[in-house]
Structure of alpha-L-rhamnosidase:
Amino acid sequence: MNKTFIYITLVLISWVSVAQNTIQVTDLQCEMLTNPLGIDVVQPRLSWQLETDASQIEQTAYHILVASSPEKLKNNEADLWDSGKVNSDATVNVQYTGKRLDSKDEAFWKVKVWTNKGESNWSESALWSMGILTYAEWKSTRWIGYNHLFEGDSIGQFAKLSARYVRKPINLKGKVKSAKVYIMGMGLYEFYINGEKIGDQVLAPVPTDYTKNVKYNVFDVTSQLQQGDNVLGTILGNGRFFAMRQEYKPYKIKSFGFPKMAMQLVVEYEDGSKETIKTDESWKFTPYGPIRSNNEYDGEVYDARKEMPNWNKVGFDDSDWLNMMWVQEPGGFYEGQMTPNMKIMDEVKPISISSTSRGTYILDMGQNMVGWLQIKVKGNRGDKITMKFAESLQDDGSLYIANLRDARTTDAYILKGEGEEVWEPTFVFHGFRFVELTGFKSKPSLDQFLGKVVYDNMETTGTFECSNETMNQIFKNAFWGISGNYKGMPIDCPQRNERQPWLGDRTTGAYGESFIFDNQTLYAKWLDDIKYSQTLDGGIPDVAPAFWRYYGDGVTWQGAYMKVADMLYTQFGDEKVIKEHYPYMKKWLLYMEANYLKDDLMTKDKYGDWCVPPESLEIIRSSDPTRLTDGEVLSSAFYYHLLQIMKKFARIQGNSDADIAYYDALAERIKKAFNTKYFNRENYSYANNTVTANVLPLAFNMVPDNLQQKVFENMVHQIEVVKEGHISTGVVGTQFLMRTLTEFGRGDLAFKLASNKTYPSWGYMVENGATTIWELWNGNTADPKMNSQNHVMLLGDLIIWYYENMAGIKSNPEKPGFKQIIMNPDFKAGLTYVNASYKSIHGIIKSYWKLNRNKLQWEVTVPVNTTAKVYIPTSDALKVRLNGEKINSEVYQSENDKIVLSLKSGTYTISAKL
């Protein structure tokens, strides 16, 4: 019997050297959290991973102990929960069912497992702690703020408001055993104790509609506090609370008021007594600190002459500071933040700096990035350095800013004149590659600047490389575009005066993104944002949180609600989100049916197949009817598709058969009406025969029986002949194009679209210098009213296709969360090798294949406690070798002229003659 050992980490994988054939458990998580403090779930879910260098390992049982102290857990005193030995192979989302935990309780837990190779030892312990679970426990904690403007502040199109510096001296009566702070700082905050910033997060907390819900963050601050005098300090920035365009177009742009905060510091002393320190009117503040303005659209102004040394330390004289006032709460319910904050995730060094005829300098970062610029400068007191950010340059070498609309995107730093000064902003971010520098008296050097890349603190889980360099660069562009637009919610763009969480941009995009980033908690939070924005009658907005009051009642945009939930189930095995959101999704479906279903067709559409390649390179939106797909076609087909998803959700959440029967009947009526009105049996096309009009019924299985191939052949003709082998779809059609082409046997055509370098294509963006994904296929020539150079909506299903159809890394929807992996690459599409990996919730999946004429070499890694179906493109088993040996009938079967290997966990080398 092989000895089994368990090693545990909190989130970050700890690679432990172990002996041959031993097992380690890594990535122990509670509710998939980066920070396990402040859990806002009464029955959290526990997960762990198994890793080993042995093969064919299966978990057969687990045993979890949960205790209220590490001492009890060490002695196996599970006073909170003893699961007993549970015969199960589950390692993900195992629900805690022990004693009910109260606010601020701590739970220490460990696990051991049984496998087909033996029993493990108990793991090391891990911890989670509960947040503040009831509104009543916040009631005595006052919201404090100051609802007035000061000198230099303004409200309007270019709203300005200086940061508020807040401090509170406290005295602790004894030695501190433990301490946690629970803080809500609206709109953004940085928190300090005795001069030390707490946490490495930036731009915290994540944005919400603050009238619906407000997120609090929790930090363990035991090591920062001392017996006796201490000082708590907070800088309050504006964020989305004091909106970027405060009280400007109030019919459209939602704003929430002046910055404010509420906080509890809970201290436990070594003698067992406790003390809670809360925000009240005794806290003092000044609006005259160095951050003179901070506006997400327009930038940050910092006057170093106004710095207040040691303002957040003991002994600072705050006698001329103002007292904070009790202010109205934001209105939303208080929730523990269950998704990570943003963080500086990377750094970018600039590649060049050049002079302009105006005496300014242009800094080139070499990469369109999202974040900010750190500068190092020397000069006289009062000298001013300004930095204006943009994505590209005009022909004369100056910044191209027309596409920023009225966003000023400018930071300014005023020197204090004390040697080398290092500065970076606190409460803004920019989308940029180029920076115009003003105020330098001589040409600065590159080492004076450093780009700070900012996005949500999530793990990169996917890698991809193949034999086509254009496709590799597209993947890199996608990486930079996706990560840069993660800002506590998925936004559309990071640079102009928009930056909104549009639903339609992520309907399918979230699925592709999940292969590259561990975005589970981000999108679970976003589903809550959508739920909170739903109207009482059932409507869902175009943007959620609804910072813009856009309620267009479409289907292709609003359908993201269901599609993202389906992604979380397929990729992460998350049934919880489906059960939580099902009633609201159903409410929206009924709302749309009641208001817009006419003659069994869905008549309401707002955006069409957004951003199809237009007839002229200078225009944004096509007006050529041959390029456009009728909105009723889009909404009817998509509504039909969503009904199929809702059938699956009804089964998952255990709903009555009545719901399923309802969805079936309605879907059948829509399908019949759709084909009656839009299917042309003479040329096997739909509507006006756009690629989008044809690909949707093909992808959704709406085409009449035995005619799918005819419709597909017609669609291929449209792509290959009419469009000369180029893409012609917009946001909607591109979501299903690549996978549908491959499913029907034309992976080679999908490969052509993916590797094209001429317009319109993703490769055309690369050929024209793009380092992210454009908003438009003609983003380098289109009208600047809408040509962002960092959008992700046009990726469609491309990244899904990379992983599922080229690499062969796909989760079997019948066994979600990659419990079973479908490895079925299209080896004939046009690539000669693919090397990809994906860290699933069960562990790392790898697929590395190479073709040399008619010989296939393929290395695959299947995580512990999962299985894989591996498809070899030959019907002759004698031509296949597994780890150098002939395969036997126990490990394979034949399916559609392919040999299908059924593999358990391990790393395998497969070779075949094709």
Notes: The first helix runs from residue 70 to 74. The two ends are 40 Å apart (CA to CA).
